[in-house]
């Protein structure tokens, strides 16, 4: 039981360290026109016959 506790604690600490170091690096945010990109992709897939009825953004 003690070994399980040690292993889970080690996984927790290593996960926290990994999250900390991954948050240090700034991710380059590119502002894309998402609705336009989706419209273009749908038009390419359906040869101009399809259209988007509704776009719901999930946060």
Account of the protein in words:
- The chain is an all-alpha fold.
- The protein has one domain.
- Helices cover 61% and strands 0% of the residues.
- The chain has helices at 2-24, 34-46.
- The longest helix has 23 residues, at 2-24.
- The protein is elongated, with a radius of gyration of 22 Å.
Concise summary:
This protein is an all-alpha fold and 59 residues long. Helix content is 61%, strand content 0%. The chain is built from two helices and no strands.
Number of strands: 0
Report Rg.
22 Å
- DSSP helical segment count: 2
Distance between the termini: 39 Å
The total number of structural domains is 1
Coarse morphology: elongated
| Portion in strands | under 5%
Helix content: 55-70%
Mean pLDDT: 85
Furnish the topology, listing elements before pairings.
Elements: H1 2-24, H2 34-46
What distinguishing features does this structure have?
elongated, 59 residues
């Amino acid at each position: 039981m003690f070994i399980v506790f040690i292993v889970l604690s080690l996984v927790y600490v290593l996960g926290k360290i990994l999250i900390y170091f991954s948050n240090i690096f700034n991710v380059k945010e590119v502002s894309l026109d998402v609705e336009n990109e989706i419209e273009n992709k749908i038009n390419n897939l359906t040869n101009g016959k399809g259209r988007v009825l509704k776009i719901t953004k999930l946060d």
